[in-house]
Specification:
By secondary structure, this protein is mostly helical. The protein has helices at residues 13-21, 29-39, 45-52, and strands at 54-56, 63-65. The chain has a two-stranded antiparallel sheet. α1 packs antiparallel against α2 (29-39). The longest helix has 11 residues, at 29-39.
Length: 66
């Protein structure tokens, strides 16, 4: 089963945050609130995503990064 799992890196959350921060200054209030929510991403968000992107092989119990 291990060979069937697709390996990929977790998304770079900081790039998503940067995209949202680049909102025009005349953006409406709702967009501003969304931007503020995304800016409040913990600095270890990528590490958290990496830790959550693990599964165990049901055959050999090996931990697999996905």
């Amino acid at each position: 089963m291990c060979e069937e799992v697709l390996h990929s890196t977790p998304p770079d959350i900081s790039k998503i945050a940067n995209d949202v921060i680049a909102v025009p200054t005349n953006a409406n209030e709702n967009i501003s609130k969304i931007a503020n929510d995304v800016i409040a991403v913990p600095t270890n968000a990528n590490e958290i995503a990496k830790n959550q992107a693990e599964i165990k092989c049901s055959d050999c119990n090996k931990v697999i990064q996905i």
